[in-house]
Every structure is written in C-alpha cells, then in structure tokens.
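Extended Data, panel c. Modelled sequence:
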Amino acid sequence: MPSTPTFTTPPPPLSESTLLTFPNPTTILVTLNRPATHNCIASAQHHELDRLWTWMDAEPRIRCAILTGAGGKAFCAGADLVEWHSHPTHPHPHPHLPPTGFAGLSNRPFTKTPLIAAIDGVCLGGGFEILLATDIVLATPGSVFGLPEARVGVVAQAGVLPRLMRSVGRQRAMEMVLVGGKIGAERMRGWGVVNEVVGEGYGGGEYTGVVKRAIEVAETIAGNSPDSVGVSKFGVELGWAGMGVEEATREVVRVMRERGVDGGENMKEGVRAFVEKRRPRWVDSKL
C-alpha cells in the first residue's frame, strides 16, 4: 500500500469504524468499516467523520477524496437503528449529530475538496443522505438505493428531502420517500444521481472495481488546477443551495479576486503550459 503522504497537520485519530488510506499523494480513501452492520453509522462515528472532513479541507495537498464502504455488500445502510433501540430515551435515531449533519456531510457548508462516492451494494437511508452530499457518484451494477425510513416509522431529516427534489424532480422524489422501495444503479443513472455504473471486474492490482475507477477519476481531477476546481465547485454549490445566477456569479468573481485566483500563479501557469505545449505544474491552492 502507498506510504502516507506528508501533510501540514496529521489526520485526526479514527476508530476501527473508519479507515483512512492513501492511494496516491493527492487522494485520500475513506472506508466505512462496519460491514457486519452494512456500514451503518453509530453516534460517535458521525463526529469522527466530521473531524476528518474538516482536516481534509484544510490540507492543500489533498486534491480529491473517495468515500466507500467495506465488505462488498453495502456502502452504508444509514443510521444504526440497533444502537438507537438500545437507548429508548432518545426521541429519534440520531439525536447527537454534529452541526454538519449525517456522517459530518449532509449539512456541511461548502468544501473545496471534491468527494467521490464509490458505491458497492446497498445505499439506503442515511447512506443516501451521504450520497447526495458528494460530488460524483460511481456504482456497481448490483448496487441499490433507497429511502426506506417510512417503512420503519422514521423520517429522513438530515437534508435529503429538499435536495432529492432538486436532484430528481418532484414525482421521482415522492416515489422514493413515500414508497420506500429499492432502486437499481442503472435507473439511478438514468435519473442523474449516479454518474457511472462500473463493472465488478474493472481494473486490477491493489484496487479493483468501483474503487479503482474512483481513483482514476480522482487522479484526473488532481491533474487540473486546484484553484479552478475549488472555485468551480463553489459556484455549482451556490446553485445547489438555491442562489440565483446573477448573485452566484458575483460571489464566484468575488472569491476569485479576494483569494488571488484571478490572475494568480495557477492561472498564469495554466496559460503558459498551454502555449508551451506541456503539462502544467500547479501549486497548492490557497482557497
């Protein structure tokens, strides 16, 4: 396995429920590691993931992150309802979420680091909440998706309901939340939720399948200007949050000017490399 890159600060301590590895110097791979529970997320894990994403976004050398689930059967099946049931005084399944939401992601404000979800297996409930908070979604053909909360008497309340309507439209969103059934990867791709369906035997070597493909996508992203990636992601997320086109465009221009992106070192290097017909040598982003 590749050695740990050098960072400005070390990663936060993690339990055995969350694995952190480094496929290459610019990418981190985060694995939800509770396969016996279909990678359901327990209370403490929400907070450790919150700390991990905060650390990630402060590290300029990390250009992309991948999130996946261990075991080959599940990405994440949501909250740990068994844990909740053992604490009957709690009024709902996840009473102590961090302000950033489910898995530290579902209500997290803007992050400059792109996050790829590599789905292999079930992606249900809170797992689907996580998915809609990521930027690119890759899935195996046998993966299934859904919001089955109504079937067990709870409600998806970590941000997915309005986001789902924006992503797939009213009728499709209503089908997911009212029927509560499972939907396959190809149908999710047709709805625009999944970017690519990746064959089970894809790739080879240390990483295979959907994780291998996610690493390839991450490497492509890391080959682009980190300033351009960060600002472009910011602009898209402003639209996702409901900001109007004119206001969002003004915000993008403001950030570019205030953070030194407009006319900055990476912009000059990109144009220079294009003229000289060579690969650009980017510097770390100061966003």
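DSSP finds ten helices and twelve strands in the chain. This feature is highlighted in the accompanying rendering.
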